[in-house]
# Entry
Amino acid sequence: MQISLEKVGKKFNRDWIVRGASFTFAPGGAYAITGPNGSGKSTLLQLIAGLLPVTEGTVGYAEAGRPLPAEGAFRRLAVAAPYLELIEEFTLTELLRFHRQFKPLVGGLSDAGFLEITALHAARHKPVRHFSSGMKTRVKLGLAFLSDVPLLLLDEPTSNLDAAGTAWYARMLQTYGPGRTVIICSNQPYEYESVPVVLTIRNAHLETNP
# Structure
């Protein structure tokens, strides 16, 4: 999927968090958006995902060279972020079945296949509210990587993961990232070390690193 930002800005009260952001994310490209805490990375990602409305400018989507209406884009993308909540009343199995109603998994992957890949088989009947923070992060990443969508949006992807979980994330990115448009928001270089294009937000403006 292609995402085109045209002078995109977001203001909260009188403060511009992002302003004048123009960039085209090419289909199948991998990108990182960096910057210190509070720089506007997460805000920009939410604007791209349609989770927040823009104050100015436009966010455009296209798939296979054809424009995609903004209201239909959400079904063609997957987001994993610390601030997005899971439905904690569901067991993991129930959550998977609910998720499938909106976004199928890659290659017709079964529940058993998902549980094997995420190493969460033992927790399949456990309510999500009883999961550790690391397990919840693994579920979010699993749902994002394994959804059959062309756009992956990852915000602080290894938040709450231990060393083994971080290594698992790197393998997932290597396995399921190619062929999709991937945007990672992070200020941790190890989360995007394999990503060829790095952008930085400075003073609310999006800059391309040389």
Q: What stands out?
A: The mean pLDDT is 95. Strands lie at 2-12, 15-25, 30-34, 56-63, 66-68, 77-80, 151-155, 181-185, 197-202, 205-208.
